[in-house]
Structures
1.
Amino acid sequence: MTFSRPSRGVLTLVAAALASLLLIVTTAVAFAQEGDEGEAFFGTLRFEGDPVAGARIAVVDAAGDAIGEATTDDDGRWRIVLPGPGTYRATIDTDSLPLGVGLRDPERRSLEATVRAGQPRPLVFALGEPVAAGPGLGEKLAQAVLNGVKLGLIIAMCAIGLSLIFGTTRVINFAHSELVTFGAIVAWYLHADTIALPLIAAGVLAIGIAGIAGGGLEIGVLRPLRRRRLGLVQFMVVTIGLSLLIRHILLMFFGPDRDRYTDFALQAEWSFGPFAVTPRDFTVMVLSAAVLVAVALFLQRARIGKAMRAVSDNPSLAESCGIDVDRIVLIVWIAGAALAAAGGIFFGTVESVDWLMGARLLLLMFAAVVLGGLGTAYGAMAGGLLIGLVTEVSTIWVGAEIKTVFALAVLVLALLLRPQGLLGRRERVG
Amino acid sequence: MEFDVILGNAGRAGLGPQAAIFALLVIGLNLHFGYTGLLNFGQVAFMLVAAYGTAITVATWGGSLWLGIPFGLGLCVVLALVLGLPTLRLRKEYFAITTLAAAEILRLLVRSSPATEITGGPFGLQAIAGSFYALNPIAEGRYGIGTFSYTANQLWVMIVAWVLVALAAALVFLLIRSPWGRVIRAIREDEDAAASLGKNVVGYKLQALAIGGVIGGLAGVVNALQQSGVGSESFGSQVTFMAYVVLIMGGVATTAGPIVAAVLFWFLREGVDSFLRQLSEEAWLPDLLADFLYDAGGAVSIALAGIALILLLKSRPEGIFGKRREGAADA
């Protein structure tokens, strides 16, 4: 019948809890007593509950002139009287701390605070185990791989349309990045602006609108130009013009700042072993993977999907087999734009929305498409994943600012070794 | 609305150093794309390499500007070889995207923090063109009427830049009419035919890439002289896109096209900008629209440029000067 008697451990716990409660009360009383003696900085240094004595703290004023110094007493208390109200900076001398005791955040060894007339101000130097050099390589690698897959899935989704448009019409669509931004911004207006739809509904609607916009571009701009037998480079320049036009129209309305979707903004991370992911990012990854699988199945099984691949392979042959090439191209544009918009919305969900988000992704999309083999949808998927992984994994060794360089360098290397791309058909050139 | 101010601003931009820089860039690009058929989407990289080569020689290594300029242009030749040797054998679209990627890699590298000691990183390099302006023979002061006026230093840069434009245009004109030029045009029309006549296709392409690259590099040098410094933000890939816009506008494979189109491009761009700025101050305009124009005027003018470009290509795909036959030769 031992369970009726509280064990020794529990008793100790209760006692410790009581003791710390007492401590809090006494500290509070001490603060209250010190509360009315003019301008000062004060505080108590503790390390794992025990007071730290003999630590030196110095205060300078805004001009950098020394005001005073204090050493903590046996109870860990310190206090420096200030000449008057104003802003001062207190710095703790970390060398004066006992061995094994450090600041929890080394950045916070110097604190700046403003003191009002007659009000002493408490300052907290948080002591603790000095944080180790950060997570180990394995953990960082796991996280980078996860981020890479996330980015790669999004790039792949955006790049499919780019690749299919190239495959069916031989046009490199520089405006594809703007379809990405367009989707994200339309969803933002439907979601975070006045209309305030939930993000999921806004996203679905925005994807639809982007699909219509993509179809509109094909019918209104590109098809008439194709009828006039415009050269391919002229086509490229037209898409550059379209890209500038759409990008700056978006800038006019959205403005130069970045914004976030309000749904799913703050979430606690789930952790699976070395991987830590927010439910939001996890959902985005699952959804984008599902979309990619669906696209692959569609291209493989559906009649229209097969026709798309046929046109991509050889437009004249496809046309002579009775495939309506114009209709297929239109569907490619609609689907490509919708996928790009979906990618943009996902990217906006995990990162943020701004008018240049697509432009930043464009080179990575190109890299994905070329890496996978121009004109093949599966190549774009494989290339996107690879580019995403390389980009993120490189951040372990190099600064995030040049991670894109690595993705592009991989592209150049891959082209030299396998000019037709990962999944492209070998073709005689040069 | 003061139309003289708008015209003055537009005219200043159209004849100013920026237009000359673009003309140089496009003359080089024309040799690549117009005459050789190389789809170079990284033309701005040559500009960057030459500008940074010059600026680093002066600002980082303390060398002379007159050593820096040939060094920067030499780097353009090196870039052409590094870029061309492996990629010129690829399909044309791949060449386009590789050059685009290379230009972006270079831009990101020079602005990255590890490179700060040499390139100034995100801050760039300043005060490099002192010995260039010391040679300025023009007396201090402003020359011109109203807003159509330049300082002595601006005039000096302009004179040098336009002389360079004329020299580059003449060089390309003569090259194209030489036996060498006939070979590169033959390569543009039919690579296999040129190869079967015993011409080293890759070698000729490399030479064209290097010569056009050095001309583009001159644009970078003038840019560095004009700003008396370099900053990575002047070398984004949109510069190459704009160069293509100007090239197509003027007409591919023409001598005068790049120059006239560069002048026209900057004239229109600054004119529309200036017009919109003035429009936003008009009293009869509703406040909402005026604020919008004031905030987003720059964006509106670039959007209008996009529309103009699309309309131009719809009505006259061969550009202002282009001949149907040459313009239609695409990649």
2.
Amino acid sequence: MRGAVRWMASVLLCVTLWLTPWGPVAAMDAAMTERYHSLIEEFRCLVCQNESLAESDADLATDLRTEIQELLEDGASDAEITDFLVARYGDFVLYRPQFKPLTYVLWIGPFVLAAAGLATLLLRIRRRAGSEAGAPLSAQEQQRLRDLLDDSARE
Amino acid sequence: MLRYLLPAALFAVLVVFLGLGLNRDPSMVPSPLIDKPAPAFSLPHLKHPAQRFTHRDLRGNVSLVNVWATWCVACYGEHPVLVALARSGQVPIYGLNLKDKRPAAIRWLRELGDPYAAIAFDADGRVAIDWGVYGAPETFVVDSGGIIRYKHIGPLTAEVLTETILPLVRRLREG
């Protein structure tokens, strides 16, 4: 009898645990949950640096997810949550760095380099095209051309 | 001339950048809290749960704040360095015990020695997040005004102490 009760209790416990929702969704409505999920994709887990907070199993990532959830429930905006993390961990937590003087080179640099490359290329093409079309043949070259044409006409 | 010099110069610049990139450790993320006041906190003392340890207790003297835990293997390696530093009396060390069990932490100190002037017990790691801690051990240098001046990530070594931390502590005391 006692064995049966104990068995029932453990089954019940398993079912309850199984039904307990995973992750921090219970207190948030649908819109907030969506914001939560898009936010945790945006931040880097500093422990395993190539994973976002959403992907990481690290202890710190779990704690930061909880922190973000609580900030959301307290009515914080996305910008406030970003500021919260940047103030503690620096710009490195952001997968998409903010656009500010320190990151101008990062954001604009590739376009500047691409434009410079394109400009150089265009300049060279134009210069080469100009040199080929512009120079007339010398008298010697004219003579050689005439010989070649005569040769081919004879054959 | 330019047609050879320009690519060579660009290549040299590239090599310098790649060289710098290779020699930087990506696991050392610079803290944005350097030269800012130590984040406010109020935590129970590890050994005296009824008393509070707050950021105000860090003022008045240059000190180290060392983040540690008994589950942290690197902290075990670092511990003798802290004990030796405490024995030398050069700078007070405060502890921030991170997400630990109180009895385990107290046993650790009893067995390995207690280098700390006082230890804050951060059971859920919230204060550590405010301090931008992302692993243990980490060590902060806090000046007498309660401003964070330096953060060392990873275990302290005798070398780091003599070359970086202690010279900084002396400078802060003078200035």
